[in-house]
């Protein structure tokens, strides 16, 4: 029997999205190719990063919370091919040995599901001389930061047409880019269970309207305040609250007496079932949550977004007719009240719109593309060699073309 194709998916738990996308692809690879494939999801920051980079993961909620628009400003400032490359280059001396360890793993192909790993892994493979097939899977829905866009990748999978244009703008060759949708867990491709049955299975009241409240994997974005506003609004609903990894919030909410039925979850694997049970989702505009809500045809009130990074997810949902933006808890309650009090016409219309924009099989499309590239791209082995000084200089400056420029200068001087 042929050996299984070992595919390493590199993710990091900055939020829940990258991990969810990696898990979705791993599950879809197994469903499609069974024993012919061996996907491994690796939390590369946790398992490999040296101090202080290892802290990026644990401090992510704090960065987003305290950063405010500062996070967006930094994100925008670095969203340029040259500057992104320079940033990565400046960290290279500190992360080099960790990244060399990553690319030395006994695998047949690498998939980056987090932007921080793209440039370093491709550089590290140049160093070792063992160039494995490398695939970049963008796990944001619309925007594509320049950090993702090393044109040396073998294949770049992006969720939407707009992300395709961003990748092109950052210099990724058109023939390497493919639009697959944003991979979400294979359960989202299964038929949607009727709400009363889904509620009964979760032990909820089968016929009571249900509102699902989320804040990404880390329970971010004023979730507590919003839950309190909805819980005390006098609505005839039951609340399903997912606090994710925000344990403090989970405890606070679980210790509260609510005037309506309320279920409070920490980090749960039950999101597909909870989305089946809900009539409305209230969530920040996290890319994976948004893609999952579309697949479950779930009208969504977007309660906020991470500046810049998630802003266009809001526009996407609003333009699709599947969501509205309402940031203030009072406004969220108003929207919810209006949606629940018109015989369900608004909700039905929005559900239909969500279905039209959904890509529930994205994980399978991405898995197919990843498998094919991993299988068909040859591993190139060369003796490890030191970089020529000028190429090292060029990479250090983060500016392609320096070498050509210098060469041309020499050439012109010779002609003169
Ligand atoms: N999620 C989950 N269980 C939880 C909370 C969140 O599985 O308890 C998943 C959620 O379904 C989605 C992901 O975590 O797949 C959140 O990703 P998103 O991109 O929306 O936001 P992020 O957490 O990355 O900011």
Protein model, in words:
This protein has 2 domains: 5-184 and 362-385, Rossmann fold (3-Layer(aba) Sandwich); 191-357, Rossmann fold (3-Layer(aba) Sandwich), CATH 3.40.50.2000. Helices cover 48% and strands 14% of the residues. The chain is built from 19 helices and 14 strands. The strands form 3 sheets. Strands 2-1-3-5-6-7 form a 6-stranded parallel beta sheet, with helices on both faces. A 6-stranded parallel beta sheet has the order 10-9-8-11-12-13, sandwiched between helices. Uridine-5'-diphosphate is lined by residues 15-17, 20, 216-218, 242, 244, 267-268, 271, 286-289, 292. Residues 15-17, 20, 216-218, 242, 244, 267-268, 271, 286-289, 292 line the site of uridine-5'-diphosphate.
